Amino acid sequence: MSSSAEKIPIDGDVSNVEHAVPSKSGSSDGPLHRSPDDFGFTEAEKKAIIGRVDRRLVLTVGAMYCISLMDRTNLGAANIAGMGVDLKLIGNRYSIISLVFFVTYVVFQPPSTVIIRKIGPRLHLAIITILWGACMIGMGFVKTWEQMAACRVLLGVLEAGFFPSAVYLLSTWYTRYEVGKRNAVFYLIGSVASAFAGILAYGIMQMKGLANMNGWRWIFVIEGILTVLLGIAGYWLLVDFPDSKRVSFKFLGPTEKEWICARVNQDRGDVKVQKFSIAKYLRAGMDWKIWAYAMIFFNTTTVTYALAYFMPIILHDNMGFSIGASQCLIAPPYAFAGIIIFGAGWVGDKYRIRGPVIIFNCILCIIGLPIVGFADSNAVRYFGVFLVTGGANANVSTALSYQANNIRGQWKRAFCSASFVMFGGIGGIAGSLVFRNEDNPHYRPGLYACLATTILTCILVGLLTINFRINNKKADRGEKELECDSDDTYEPGFRYTY
């Protein structure tokens, strides 16, 4: 590192460093407007710093999300492994225990992005992960379907805080056109879990008879133990917010942390966290775009959760595969989805676009859904599953980046993350209901519902694109400042990402 970096205070408290560049109001009140170039890091040093953040942050939250996704979506594998018989899941009981999770999951999400700011990511995320792992273990010992439903309600309470908090945490560390690939990797790790969860479940269910327990019970017990262990490890591996003074960053020096803050602030001007105000927090709800992003995520998760909960059942009932084959054949479509997910993130960051990538992913779904529903050959229908799984799952990470790129202000970002993921949870409720037992074996009404939500996403992206173009042109002419509250002092130059 060059000598210029030695002149920067290294006490780790970014609130005591003076601005190198004055703010819009002409004041200088911290390091938040210092240019990243003032720190004197070489390009190799910058890449090394970001690489360390990637390894500690993206991989850790990705691994924790992997186990989260696996824990909430293993019902399909457990159902065909004997749970449906043991718990007498007749009528709509399976759909009920699938959807009750999302009731509490949705209700308890909004406070999570406020709590994580108060107590810190390490404590918040580690504790809830350990607790829901314990709940998973308990699910292996239930005797009735009502007890399983109760455990699912509790699981929703505990998992509610993870995803919005993780999304919010990721968005605070990276610039707008770095976050696409990171969101892709974060969600890609979760998709790997979905890809191999069926195979893992098939392996675990071979423990049937051990300790006089059926195989489906061991699925919950073993996966719950893995969750608890990962939660414990997560406390030591997770990192706090880059602007936080709560924890010593062992993997970054104080000057490196200040450089992270400076580059993010130069990109979107919102590193400084203003004092929490419930009025300011809720004011974000007046922006219709917040709800458009949320609705896009609702549409996306309706499809992804429908696939997660019912793909083993569709493969077994609709396509006639055996139980073992149905669980194992889940893996290839999710592996294909992983390629689409990372490709979407890479293209979006490289070309600084989001909307067109979302539309492309929707087209994959629009092509794939009719193939699944109406093709005569099982092989062709299975090909349609690839397209739908790839397009729908790729839109999860792309939609995350879409909203993150077009929001400025920490509390607005927190509100947007919470409402965004809350609507994703509501999509989980819809996804739990769209495929009904009475529609067996073709499940075409569910396919129609997935097709409708996908088309709605295309419409919303089109409306947002028109709005972004109009407002960007006004900002170019100096007629308005984008995403700036009247009492904020963000640097000018922010533009919406189409």
TrEMBL record:
Residues 57-474 form the Major facilitator superfamily (MFS) profile domain. It comes from the Eukaryota. The keyword Transmembrane helix applies. Coiled coil: none annotated. One of its GO terms (cellular component) is membrane. The chain crosses the membrane at residues 95-116, 123-141, 153-173, 185-204, 216-238, 290-315, 321-345, 357-375, 381-402, 414-434, 446-468. It is a multi-pass membrane protein. Residues 1-36 are annotated as: Disordered. It holds the Pfam family MFS_1. GO terms for molecular function: transmembrane transporter activity. This is Major facilitator superfamily domain-containing protein.
